[in-house]
Specification:
disordered C terminus
């Protein structure tokens, strides 16, 4: 049963770029409705746990919500400006930035293993961006935005790691998702975005983003943290860019190239090396349990 749950989780987490492209709606509408649906599901549990700590954590939770908003906004923007394969590979570097952030913010030690992992991932990014020339200026901007999304996601992970010491996961997610949803609502209102009137295919994509990705995929990974070694889970997550690239090739005719394969091998090797370090468990626990 557990291998099946792991497979379902990986499949769900390979979907966001494909679903966003299929939604064909403004960034703000996609972000707001995705988070609105997720908050609607979390609300009863968050209400029942409203007295379980959290005092004085309003500002840190709001900061986490801002970081999550920035992560989703840049990720969604990148979907329209680069290929799905480039986007997902650039985003898969987020464990590297989380490790660097843990060193800068929490003074967690960096040894030769961690530095080697960073070097491999950096080489993978350079190979990936070398192929951005074929996508034109817009493709390069999309790749850079995807990398920026990974940085914001790492900030969200690190914020969640600190906050969840005094706030349960459901309450944290509800508050942070709600903050991000309000930011999407405000920016969309400023731009005059239409919130309704979308075809059924758009609403289906938005519902899948909320239930399959934000709740289902990450919820299953959080559950599986107590069932599998974290290295197994981190390696399983590396299947996400591969599955997303294959999906984009089948659905949108996006080409696959040897350069993409080389970039994936380098980035994957860097992530695996990094996650085998002594501080890996706390980083992956935080990253998977706080993921959006």
């Amino acid at each position: 049963m557990r291998p099946l749950l792991l497979l379902v989780a990986v499949l769900c987490l390979s979907l966001p770029a494909l679903l966003i492209r299929g939604a064909r709606a403004p960034i703000e509408a996609i972000g707001f409705w995705r988070l609105f649906f997720a908050c609607a599901v979390l609300a009863p549990w968050a209400w029942s746990r409203r007295k379980n700590g959290g005092a004085g954590q309003g500002r840190p939770v709001a900061l986490a919500g801002v970081l999550f908003f920035l992560h989703l906004w840049t990720f969604t923007w990148a979907v329209s400006h680069t290929s799905v394969a480039h986007l997902m590979l650039a985003f898969s570097t987020h464990p590297v930035w989380t490790g660097l952030g843990a060193w800068l913010l929490f003074r967690e030690p960096l040894g030769r293993r961690e530095l080697g992992g960073f070097g491999l991932a950096a080489a993978g990014v350079l190979v990936l961006f070398g192929g951005s020339v074929s996508l034109g200026a817009a493709g390069l901007a999309g790749d850079l935005c995807a990398l920026l999304s990974a940085l914001f996601f790492s900030g969200w992970v690190l914020a969640g790691r600190r906050l969840r010491r005094g706030l349960d996961t459901v309450s944290f997610l509800f508050a942070a998702y709600g903050t991000a949803a309000l930011l999407f609502l405000a920016t969309g209102a400023a731009r005059g975005v239409a919130w309704t009137g979308w075809p059924a295919s758009t609403w289906a994509a938005l519902a899948l983003l909320a239930f399959a990705v934000s709740l289902g995929g990450h919820g299953l990974f959080t559950y599986l943290l107590n069932k599998y070694d974290v290295l197994v889970l981190s390696c399983a997550k590396l299947a996400e860019p591969v599955l997303a690239a294959l999906g984009a090739s089948l659905l949108f005719g996006e080409p696959l190239s040897p350069r993409l394969g080389a970039a994936f091998v380098l980035i994957a090797a860097g992530v695996v090396v990094l996650m085998r370090g002594p501080a890996a468990k706390s980083k992956i626990d935080a990253g998977l349990a706080a993921a959006g």
